[in-house]
Amino acid sequence: MTLPDRESVSRRTYLKTAVAVGGSVGLTACVGELTTTEPQPDGETDTQRVPTGDRDSLPDRQHAWNGYLSQDAHGNYEPPAHHVLRYLSIADSVALDSAREQFETALTDLESAFAWSSDGLLFTVGYSPRYFTQFDEQPALPESVEFPEPTALTDLESPTFDTYELVVHFASDRPDALLAAEEALFGSQETVNGREITAISDLFDEAESDRRTGFVGAGLPAENQDVEGIPSGNPVPEDAPLFMGFRSGFERTQATEDRVTIEAGPFAGGTTQHISKLQLQLNAWWNQENHFQRVAKMFSPRHAAEERVGDVGEKLTTDSGLTTEDISDLLKQARDDGVVGHAQKTARAREDGRPVILRRDFDTTDDDHAGLHFVSLQRSISDFGKTRAAMTGTDIADESGIGPRVNNGIMQYIFVRNRGNFLIPPRPHRSFPTANPEANET
Ligand code: HEM
Questions:
Q1: Fewer CB within 10 A of the terminal residue: the chain, N end or C end?
Q2: What is the pLDDT of residue 332?
């Protein structure tokens, strides 16, 4: 991906593309865009300085982001606008015991350089099952952690499995903070936001790495819809936060951070992470379906008939407006209407009235194709599997006769390209943990 001509795109598109391009080129473009020439009282020229952090005040849970995000008028948490997933594998020459301190120092440097918030920098470090195979302990991981190798979850997919050893998920409303953090860790920038950062590129094998990027929030999908998978004519509404056009992730249709946290054992305070790369094919979604059909497929047929949603979900407040009947009468609705909604179907996996996974997904134009990086946190990977099975809805499709893809929620439009499972340890064990960190410390 290359940077567009500055004059040909909006500022937000330019900044989003700078994140996708990354490296020193992306960072320079970003800083140039966000820096004004007007001198400030203290002589600085950056009018929007990124707040610095107080690393001693941070929670043990790496995934404790909610308390540091902005909230909308209804109290829903607003995800950071820009995201980067850095997939990494440790270089063969690196000894974990000696590299651990270097990695941890780099991460704490970042926490001092940037506030732990949307207008600073949020990140998690997660490790794959493959990472833990290097330890001799039997069993390899304590039984309190359930996170197997990724598998195909439906007959409709044959994904590539991400077996990188770790993944760092960076998120911020500030593309310059995000890119500067990456450049300091993996590139040649020594100081960011007034703090020196320990570099860590020597710890990783560049050939075994990947970088995926994306964005979420009203306006960003519309501004970035000129890609494969979205038909011409700019169909994505101006204020849609995602390419499929609707708001998602309401306060009450997300698991709480408590619900997704591992409760016992050495990784207590951690969580598991599933990341899938979904390609979106939205030609029929935008060209053949009308708004009524899109609402029926995304939410439920009753949502469409009763106009519960609005253009992009603006009629909804703290949840998706599903009634108990929308969930319990699913099969009847599917038979009567010949269509079943994504939210309605997936809600069958709720426990105590709430989902068991916490979604932190975002759109992407990686590979110049519309897509969505589905990042999900849950106490155990089986919580994800159960929820995904409810979404796939093979039982409903079979029993109602609607078929596996067409009219079965949004199954027709999403194609799973990659899947990966990771363990996000609590902060004290986030740097190259052994399979049983507390046991090893004694
Ligand atoms: C392009 C992909 C996707 C889009 C655009 C999308 C969008 C949405 C929307 C608009 C809702 C209703 C609003 C809300 O409650 O958040 C929803 C609900 C939900 N989605 Fe998705 N979704 C996608 C993929 C997935 C996947 C892969 C999963 C994995 C299982 C998933 C799990 C859920 C869950 C758990 C809910 C809440 C259900 C409940 O209310 O209990 N979604 N999604």
A1: C
A2: 94
Q: Are 132 and 435 in contact (CB under 8 A)?
A: yes
Q: How do residues 242-274 score in pLDDT, each as one tens digit?
A: 999 999 999 999 999 999 999 999 999 999 999
CB of 357 within 6 A of ligand 1: the answer is yes
- At 261, the amino acid letter reads T
HEC string of 158-204 equals CCEECCCCEEEEEEECCHHHHHHHHHHHHCCCCEECCEECCCCHHHE
Neighbours of 378 (CB within 10 A): 27
347 CB less than 6 Å from ligand 1?
A: yes
Percent of the chain with pLDDT over 90: 82
Rg (CA), the chain: 22
pLDDT digits 0-9 by tens, 9-27:
888 888 889 889 998 888 8
Task: Indicate the pairing of strand 358-359 with strand 70-71.
Answer: unpaired
Structural domain boundaries in the chain: 6-441
On whether the CB atoms of residues 307 and 117 are closer than 8 A, the answer is: no
Ligand 1 atom nearest to 299, measured from its CA: 12
Is residue 18 within 6 Å of ligand 1 at its C-beta? no
Q: Is the CB of 388 under 6 A from ligand 1?
A: yes
